[in-house]
Amino acid sequence: MTDLDDFTITIVGLGLMGGSLGGALRGQCRVVVGVARRPETVERALARGLIDRGTTDLADGVATADVVVLATPVRVILDLIPQIGPLLPEGCLLMDLGSTKTHVVRAMQRLPAHVQPLGGHPMCGKEVSGIAAADPALYRGCTFILSPLAHTSERAMALGQALARAAGAHPLVLDAGRQDFLVGTVSHLPYLLACALVSTADATTSADPAAWQIVASGFRDTSRVAGSDVTMMLDILMTNREDILKALEHFDAALHKLYHLVESSDEQNLRMTLDVIREKRREMFP
Amino acid sequence: MTDLDDFTITIVGLGLMGGSLGGALRGQCRVVVGVARRPETVERALARGLIDRGTTDLADGVATADVVVLATPVRVILDLIPQIGPLLPEGCLLMDLGSTKTHVVRAMQRLPAHVQPLGGHPMCGKEVSGIAAADPALYRGCTFILSPLAHTSERAMALGQALARAAGAHPLVLDAGRQDFLVGTVSHLPYLLACALVSTADATTSADPAAWQIVASGFRDTSRVAGSDVTMMLDILMTNREDILKALEHFDAALHKLYHLVESSDEQNLRMTLDVIREKRREMFP
Prior knowledge:
Largest interface: A-B, 90 and 90 residues
CATH class of the largest domain in chain A: Alpha Beta
Distance between the termini of chain A: 31 Å
Structural class of chain A: alpha/beta
Number of domains of chain A: 2
CATH topology of the largest domain in chain A: Rossmann fold
Strand order of the largest sheet of chain A: 3-2-1-4-5-6-7-8
CATH superfamily of the largest domain in chain A: NAD(P)-binding Rossmann-like Domain
Oligomer: homodimer
Strand content of chain A: 5-15%
């Protein structure tokens, strides 16, 4: 197994994801360098012990890095990739933490040959963003998707997996297109449903002051992800549009089926349908 | 404040809701009597210390009751109300725990004059059902909706509130129609969304073995209530049909709005819409 002991790891972007990763890796590698746009963010990351060293200068931050992790919203990652390529030392592994991978991997294909590229997507998060919410335990137990490119070396791949494991996550290798299709349904669709649910409650029941006294745990849970960072989600929606629209169309059909079963009071088929769904949910989360 | 010390409380139906209520009230009133259809259920409730005394005979169970709580699915409650009326002692308070109230309150209007009727709906639950899942802490901190009838006495109302508080819940008085409209959106709609989401994932991504390794907490939370007891949910859907269909129509419009914003890549309006929704969610759960 690859050991991180001797490596310098630079994290670009010290928000929830980047700050948490720094905190998780610090002490397991030679040094964790943090790069942020604002000096206050660097100071807070240092004060919280999430990084060993910090800078607002990208070139300085990556100059001696063995691994660079881009931890910004997806479209900032897409802007950073061509900028950062020429700044990276020979053999440096360039990873990212973006939630969509097709565009990222495409941008990584144009990196100079001395860089080892590897798409990454840890399946964890919170509805709070920024360094203040960073938590070194955030990655523990989550699946960390890795999307290699055709020319990603075995050594680079092993290093990416070691990094995921060092953060407490389980690496899972998935082609970028397949990952985008799957997360479109299991992650991006639930976000839009949560948003539409909040919007519905706001339009129909929020005029009644009793409404918010009775919101049950079902509503709280189903709407939770509607609190996610909007800039991050907007980037996701715009870079996984096709898969998300397809997932929405499937969902629409499933919901209309339920609507018609309720409307027609077709109890026998409604029970059968709900029984099958309940069983599926149990298979998914035994 | 009304004291339950001297009261005999009979709970009809010893599933998750009834068993948990028994466990919560036991020791705070003279005696908790449990009535179930099957002798095994009565035995389990006694063995778990959820009731003081149990029987499978409805007439015997309610003969000396000061309060009777119907804790079965809604349509069994509707069947029980006319049967149980003549069996109740003079002045007995008859409550229920059904999730929809319009039909229940209508059935309670036909009870004999010696009975004090009060609709009840505690906003708590789990996706597991039956006495095995009963938990005396289930009601703690939840809102317990009480829907009085025109002739419900102040004394009966105070007793209902005392019972809710003794279980650890916060009583909230709401007219039956208003409660059904509100829970249609904040409770029954999230159930159908969770079901349609599971159904979508099953239809689109479940063929890929990687799908279930990457289900993030967003999906788990948004789909949680799809595991709810089907008989209970079917009764709810059938007795709150109109309000649920209206909530579904509102949701459908909200989701289509989001669909079109994503489809047309109208980022400015999408961001504005998502920002408003995020703010609303924060107001709902500060």
